[in-house]
Amino acid sequence: MKVRVPVDPTIPVWATLFLVAVVSTLLSLADVLAFSQETRELPNFMQEKQLKIRDEVPDDAQAIFDLTAAAFEPKAYSDGTEAPIINQLRIDGDLTTSLVAVADGEVVGHVAFSPVTISGSSDGWYGLGPVSVRTDLQRTGIGSKIIRKGLSRLEANGAAGCALIGDPDYYGRFGFKSDGRLHYEELPDRLVQWLAFGDEDAEGVLEFCAAFQS
After folding, report:
1. Is pLDDT at 121 greater than 80 in this prediction?
2. Distance of CA 83 to the CA centre of its chain
3. Model's pTM, two decimal places?
4. CATH: 3.20.20.80, 3.40.630.30, 3.30.565.60, 2.10.109.10. Which one for 49-212?
């Protein structure tokens, strides 16, 4: 928007230029505030769908299976075992924490936590995964919300920490780190990450439940 200020020969040039700058700034600020107000009036996904995070119930099992299978199907690194792994963890009694994100009565996100051992010792450490979000709703923050909820649950229940295999650029935001002290099979150490809830660090060989080996 162009700003025009009447020129008065009795007013110094510097004063006129200053006035132009002030008016331009105020108009720009008004535009920003108008845009911000318009944005606030548009409900985001979380508000519009009233996302709820809760523990899974028996009736969620099939929805979790279908959600997980669909979420991992297009991933080049997936071997298609993620959904069956969750079912097996449940059967074996190793599904320590299983949280679902629900919107409009539909399961749109899920995260699983199960016990792990580090160099043969199971001192309160748990593994994160699989975690999945409905394909059309990925990158909306749902995954982060259920992961944080699950980690808070583990810590509140006295867990020593959590470990996982994944992208350090993503999981680093939750506090996970890969420092080369935790190993898993032949995978690069940078993908093997851990998060301690107390003073105990993770060091050694990571091993997941039997469901991950079948």
Report:
1. yes
2. 19
3. 0.78
4. 3.40.630.30
